[in-house]
Design goal:
Elements: H1 4-13, E1 21-25, H2 28-31, H3 41-50, E2 55-58, H4 61-66, E3 75-79, E4 81-82, E5 94-95, H5 99-104, E6 109-116, H6 121-138, E7 142-148, H7 159-171, E8 176-179, H8 185-194, E9 199-203, H9 211-223, E10 228-230, H10 233-236, H11 241-254, H12 258-266
Parallel strand pairs: 1-2, 1-10, 2-3, 3-6, 6-7, 7-8, 8-9, 9-10
Antiparallel strand pairs: 4-5
Length: 267
């Protein structure tokens, strides 16, 4: 049973009626630098909020540079772990913040990134466990971004490794698990069922370039039992972040078809 604090905060990052969520991660500034779409954080937060996103996710730079002072409300998830593409091992994520700081910043949840199969997997698992315990103490929801990356991983989207990774996050205390899509509703259902009552959302991944492919991925995940989607570059680097966010929300929250969402996007 979730604590009262977790329950209240989860309502700020999830739709109360559907129990689903659309998150737009904006933590890329640390990983890859000032990329297009994130140069003006307040303007981008405003666009995805207008599109109906339930939450944005990022490092402390997000509330410092993109805090909501106007427009629709939107939840804030503070990301606690980081690495950069310039380092010798970008898959080695380390903690750069903590739950107490997230509370000071008014965050509604925190997130941690773990790469199973990476050389420093054990350290990242330890960090996940420690953050999960702090989240229990403070009543803070925890989003675990868990991926399979390393020399022993032949296919990051293979259902066998994805469902294992998702289950690890669920076992160690995540309230929401974010993982890769496995390619079909049938295989992704193995992932969601393997997490029991813990909610699972899909990661948007690299920029696809085709709106229909993105929307089909979101629809397939929802058919497979997902609780939503966490779409970053495919949202904030879209020619119309507000429209693509609204189209994603239509699938996640309203059960619209891909064709209906495409019609909304093209209107």
């Amino acid at each position: 049973m979730l604590s009262i604090g977790k329950s209240i905060r989860l309502e700020r990052i999830m739709n109360r009626q559907t129990g689903h969520t659309v998150i737009v991660p904006m933590d890329h500034g640390v990983t890859v630098g000032p990329i297009p779409g994130l140069l003006n954080m307040p303007a981008m937060v405003d666009q995805v909020a207008e599109g109906g996103a339930d939450a944005v996710l990022g490092h402390v730079g997000l509330p410092r540079l993109g805090h909501r002072g106007y427009g629709p409300d939107i939840g804030l998830i503070l990301h606690l772990s980081a690495s950069t593409r310039l380092g010798p091992d970008p898959n080695h994520k380390v903690l750069v913040s903590n739950v107490e700081r997230a509370i000071k910043y008014g965050a509604d949840a925190v997130s941690v990134h773990i790469n199973l199969g990476a050389e420093y997997e054990s350290e990242m698992l330890r960090d996940l466990g420690e953050v999960a315990m702090a989240c229990e103490n403070w009543g803070m929801p925890l989003v675990a971004m868990v991926y399979t990356r390393g020399p022993n991983i032949k296919d990051e989207h293979d259902v066998e490794v994805v469902k294992h990774a998702a289950r690890v996050a669920a076992e160690l205390g995540a309230d929401i698990v974010k993982c890769d899509y496995t390619g079909s509703p049938e295989t992704f259902r193995q992932v969601t069922e393997g997490c029991g009552p813990v909610k699972v959302v899909i990661a948007g991944g690299a920029k696809l370039g085709e709106d229909r492919a993105l929307l089909e991925m979101v629809a397939g995940a929802m058919e497979g039992g997902a609780a939503g989607a966490s779409i970053g570059r495919n949202a904030f680097q879209h020619e119309s972040p507000e429209k693509i966010t609204r189209a994603i929300c239509a699938i996640v929250h309203e059960g619209k078809s891909v064709d209906d969402a495409m019609a909304m996007l093209q209107a």
